[in-house]
Design a protein that fits this description.
alpha/beta, Lyase, Ornithine Decarboxylase, Chain A, domain 1, 11 helices, binds ligand LLP
Length: about 375
């Protein structure tokens, strides 16, 4: 909820901007910490969801690790105080520069996705006289039942090692002297709301564990990735951490000495952020009324790219309800935030909030049309 006091303070600020409610962020982190400590699981925040320096600092202060996908994300995580021994490094296309930065930082683990990648990590580690700890990202062939662009663990996916290649991977590993296999890694997709998907993943992991045990391969790290969805219809609702953790607890069979790792992104930061924008014009269309706002797909691309639904609230009107298409100013018809939604009578100058935008919002903003990047405003600065 964005309260009236906060809304009054928004009135003098230039729009659009991301508003981060730090109380929401902290209460989400409190719950996550409680659940993860109770289960003994290690959380690595998926930095890509929101790499804002202030947000990273708050998350690192809880003692969580980080899940990075580029040398810049590693640098930002270290800068924010994350311990290198809690950094995992993912990505299907790591560059040499990425790998060298990760080796130099002495991170916890590389999540490896192919034999050629393992070979390159081994060569670069040898040059630096280091041994890289790796986990194999395995494609578990599980449909996440989410948007196809953020489905990552089915047969057609570019991600992960196929199970039919595992025998070759193990043979190869025995030849690579600067790599040490410590675990297995999975990530089946993002914005997963069907809990049964995670249950299927647990079963698949249990099966795969047998495969490794039968070859006397000892794994200490089992990483289930991220993906827990949030409720975009109800921006004031918290993610279902309790249910998620108790499901993992119930269905995954960890062997003695093994630790479970996870990489949540959206569920940590999604609900604490809103994109705040001003209404520029109300324009009549043939069959609809457009509310043209000053935020566009450059500030929040999720609706245009994934047809994602974010709840939109008019913060400054309590008039009669009308239907609007809420659109941005960019010269593309995909620059639409919502179609035919009910809002109280909306006029030029009104402030609107596009909710649940803390994850993959500011992080994916671009300067298309040479627009300014959206600023970040924190609740404790107002
Ligand atoms: N681990 C790996 C290996 C990942 O690829 C991702 C996200 C995560 C963890 C974190 O997933 P989360 O808990 O946030 O679902 N831009 C898209 C989402 C892309 C997700 C990419 N990978 C969106 O706006 O929906």
């Amino acid at each position: 909820m964005i309260d009236n006091k906060t809304i009054a303070k928004f009135k003098d600020l230039p729009t659009p901007f991301y508003y981060y409610d730090l109380d929401v962020l902290r209460s989400t982190l409190d719950t996550l910490k409680k659940e993860s400590e109770y289960s003994g699981y290690k959380v690595h925040y998926a930095v890509k969801a929101n790499p804002n320096a202030r947000i990273l600092k708050i998350i690192s202060s809880y003692g969580f690790g980080a899940d990075c996908v580029s040398y810049n994300e590693i640098a930002a995580s270290l800068e924010a105080g994350f311990d290198p021994s809690g950094i995992v490094f993912a990505g299907v296309g790591k560059t040499d520069k990425d790998i060298i930065a990760a080796l130099n930082a002495d991170i916890f683990c590389f999540n490896c996705e192919s034999i050629p990648e393992m070979e390159v990590i081994d060569q670069l580690a040898a040059k630096l006289n280091k041994t890289a700890s790796i986990a194999l990202r395995i494609n578990p062939y599980i449909d996440a039942h989410t948007h196809k662009y953020i489905t990552t663990g089915i047969e057609a996916s570019k991600f992960g090692i196929n199970t039919w290649e595992l025998e070759d991977v193990i043979k190869k590993l025995s030849l690579l002297k600067n790599i040490k296999l410590i675990g297995i890694h999975f990530h089946v997709g993002s914005q997963i709301t069907r809990m049964s998907v995670f249950q299927s993943l647990c079963s698949r992991i249990n099966e795969l564990q047998e495969w490794f045990t039968s070859r006397a391969i000892n794994l200490t790290s089992i990483n289930v990735g991220g993906g827990l969805g949030i409720d975009y219809e109800n921006p004031d609702k918290n993610p279902r951490f309790e249910e998620y953790f108790s499901l993992l607890n119930e269905f995954i069979n960890l062997l003695p000495g093994q630790k479970l790792h996870l990489e949540p992104g959206r569920s940590i930061v999604g609900q604490c952020g809103s994109l705040i924008s001003r209404v520029l014009f109300i324009k009549n269309g043939s069959n609809t009324t457009f509310a043209i706002i000053d935020a566009g797909m450059t500030d929040l691309i999720r609706p245009a790219l994934y047809q994602a639904h974010h709840k939109i609230e008019n913060l400054t009107s309590d008039g009669r309800m009308y239907r609007y298409d809420v659109v941005g100013p960019i010269c593309e018809s995909s620059d639409t935030f919502a179609k035919y939604i009910e809002l109280p009578e909306t006029k030029r100058g009104d402030l609107v909030a596009i909710r649940s935008a803390g994850a993959y919002g500011e992080a994916m903003a671009s300067r298309y049309n040479l627009r300014d990047l959206p600023r970040a405003v924190f609740s404790d600065e107002l």
